[in-house]
Amino acid sequence: MFSDQRPVRSSRFAATKFGSKTMSLIKFLALFIIAIPFFIILRLTFSNPSSYLKMGVDQERILNRMSHNGTLMAEHGSEDSSIMLKDKLLGGLLAHGHHEGSCLSRYQSSLYRKTSPYKPSSYLIAKLRSYEELHKRCGPYTESYNRTLKQLQQGQTQSISSANSECKYVVWVSFSGLGNKILTIASAFLYAILTNRVLLVDPGKDIHDLFCEPFPDNSWLLPNDFPLKSKFDMYEQKSPDSYGNMLKNNILSTSSESLPSFLYLHLVHDYKDHDKLFFCDQHQKLFSEVPWLIMKTDNYFVPSLFLIPSFEAELFRLFPNKSTVFHHLGRYLFHPTNHVWGLITRYYKAYLEKADERIGIQVRVFEIKPGPHKHVMDQILACTLQQKVLPEVDKQKTLIPPPRTSSTKAVLMTSLSSGYFDNLRTIYWEHPTITGDVIGIYQPSHEEYQQTEKNSHNRKAWAEMYLLSLTDVLVTSAWSTFGYVAQGLGGLKPLILYKPENLTTPDPACVRAKSMEPCFHAPPFYDCKRKTGVDTGKLVPHVRHCEDMSWGLILVDTDSNDDL
Q1: Which of 149, 157, 188, 235 is a good FRET partner for 518, with 20 to 30 A between their CA atoms?
Q2: CA distances for 173 relative to 115, 185, 208, 224, angstroms
Q3: CA quadruple 139, 144, 146, 150: dihedral positive or negative?
């Protein structure tokens, strides 16, 4: 190789290298220039939350969580967040340990409902965890259950001094319509907590089809082989086994030295004076020695439990806010099964989720003739318009330009008749609102008449109660347990439509409830100490008469300004 050839080769290599770098730089700049518009588009896209839907992210659920709970959390967000966990467990009401797939509603309800401003007391939370341990230890087919059941099967009587069963039970008998069932199960459960008993629920024909198991480690359903189950349908006011009749016939008294292994408690609306002694302290003392209490009721009797002196201190610790009893116990106990949850969530997403405001109107008519009735329709309009629940319409104009502040309102109506829905929908379809608000009227079903023993009817009824509880504003009908369940689960103080008399529209049409608690329709009016009649709605500040039923009792918070 010649000596002068090396520099030439080096020079060519350097030139080639320089040219390669220049080409790479040019390509890079070209790609950068081409990419700039894409970066700008992406920046603009992701700065707008509505674009997430196009990118495959569940925008609706995210926005729903933001508006309902003030928390940005997608459906499958991090469960490590203490905020989400607290919300998911409803402020501590619910326990860990349930299989989520078997009951989706238990931990998903917080995705559809605003976070409740009413927090359960730490004492109530501790009491629920303690009860779950008791239920695990004493529930169906446990050793303790089998031992106590054997005593019942043998029909043994026992002396009060030997009545020391480790586990005692209150058995709820399936009875009446679905709204009544929900309210009475909650009543029986609170009684079980107060008396350290285990609640067992007679499944009837539909309980297992409507509600998930509420307790983590054992069923709340009464086994089918329970020895007294064949008698449940025969238990009534005149049953010789009822506690009231045993007292009346001098078979049993508060001074009895021996007790039966079970007592039937008849707490249905037709109960007599001796049955009502259930709400007296001296009789509660006797009950505490009986292993099995069989309870049939169609009443939410919780207000009268607050009038029993031996329960008072415990109830005050459990519920510092007296008007939250069913709100907390209902959300703890009643979780729709997956089938019913599907009915609820599909309807909510299709018709209610995107509205700025959700309004529930629950119509229950007690007229003999089928509706719709003009006086009831007039009452619905009078209440909702006068109370500014719905906007007026302008019947003179065909179109009003919507103002910038206009909103969409989804109105969920529930009724056995479709007539009220049809009338209201026609009004807001044919005429514009004076506010420019857009009103959508929806009704999931119209079964025409109540079909208590039909499973499909009860599934729809339960779904509609739950949907009503997800609304922001609620209008209910007087005397209706359907409405009571919705307002209690939702933590809502509804406008109550007064019960019409003589086919005329009441004036005023409705009244604002002072409490979200259900009304006890058939309370006792008896002073247990003085053994005389008394107005039990005037004994203590937190138990008052109901707005919709003047003789009924309702729990209210003691800061209420209403007169006794």
Answers
A1: 235
A2: 33, 9, 14, 13
A3: negative
Helix (H, G, I), strand (E, B) or coil at 554: strand
Q: What string of DSSP letters covers 91-124?
A: GGTSPS---GGG-HHHHHGGGTSPPPSSPPPHHH
Q: Quote the tokens at residue 51.
A: 């674009």
Residue 509 structure tokens: 């049409």
Do you know the residue count of the chain?
564
How large is the greatest C-alpha to C-alpha distance in the chain, in angstroms? 135
DSSP state of 270: T
Question: What stretch of H or E contains 409?
Answer: strand 408-414
Q: pLDDT tens for residues 127-168?
A: 999 999 999 999 999 999 999 999 898 876 665 444 567 899
pTM of the model: 0.84
Tokens 């116990």 locate to 329
Cα separation values, 552 from 299, 479, 520, 549, Å: 11, 10, 5, 5
Residues 6 or more apart whose CB falls under 8 angstroms from that of 48 comprise: none
Q: Give me the residue label for tokens 């060519």.
A: 12
Residues 6 or more apart whose Cβ sits within 8 Å of residue 28: none
**Residue 348, both tokens:** 């909510």
Of 70, 196, 217, whose CA–CA distance to 140 is shortest? 217
